[in-house]
Amino acid sequence: MKVAFLGLGVMGFPMAGHLAVRGGHEVTVYNRSAAKAQAWVGKYGNASAPTPAQAARDADIVFACVGNDDDLRSVTMGPDGAFSGMKKGAIFVDHTTASADVARELYEAAGKLGLGFVDAPVSGGQAGAENGALGVMCGGDPDVYTKAEPVIAHYAKACQLMGPVGAGQLTKMVNQICIAGLVQGLAEGIHFAKKAGLDLEKVVGVISKGAAQSWQMENRWKTMNEGKFEFGFAVDWMRKDLGICLATARHNGAQLPVTALVDQFYADVQVMGGKRWDTSSLVARLERKG
Asked: What is the rounded CA–CA span in Å between residue 101 and residue 113?
């Protein structure tokens, strides 16, 4: 297929690469920083374009992975937005973690232009993107999803249609809610074990084989213990995501007391200078306070 990819951050850069290498697709990329787009072309070949509209021209599927709702509107709408360059019948797949409201807004706008739209946020972090092993949760029309799924599969370990448009974003909110509590629990467990004078490696070796096991424990306990927070998803982005979760909960009536508390703990980490630390840095807050 001829495809486009908009947004070449730590996730988008390797995801677009898999479309070219694993998929063998003809890929045109766009990035707000043209230097990053040129770096991608230097590594993977294919082409870059100076605007989303030009990147999207004649593409069968246009993918995006940008920062937030406003970034998403910027690359889709307006004279230089992707929608203005897409041919009728083409599909826009959005991998941004954004609000369900913006997904519905863009679905309506795309429909009026004869375009398909799928909201498809991902989970698995930078490592998952680089290894082509992401979890992708999608919302949209079944016939549109069916066309997009085999292409998404080039960088996905699992891909599932969760329901109508917006359902992908809502599922990603569940993902972030669960992770927030898990990381705080792990941070407290590590902190407690050290205060109790236990051998942390032995502790994790035992409890990771039982009910306390998690991806976060197996992949982050050691770097958390060493005070290294240069891996994966940044605190700034987690707070953006949790803000979306909490705003949505205010509308649907869900009670998220732990999520709200952990969000404030991440605010403390930001004040400590950890805006770009990864989410496991919650343990640094406990070490500072105790």
From this structure: 19
Encode 212-221: b = buried (16+ Cβ within 10 Å), e = exposed: eebebbeebb
Q: Which of 88, 112, 147, 172 is catalytic?
A: 172
What is d(CA 256, CA 85) in angstroms, rounded to the nearest whole number?
41
pLDDT value of position 231: 86
88 is catalytic: no
Torsion sign across C-alpha atoms 116, 68, 72, 23: negative
pLDDT for residue 232 is more than 90: no
Q: At 79, give phi and psi (nearest 5°).
A: -65, -30
Per cent of the chain over pLDDT 90 is 96
pTM (two decimals): 0.94
150 C-beta neighbours (distance < 10 Å), count:
11
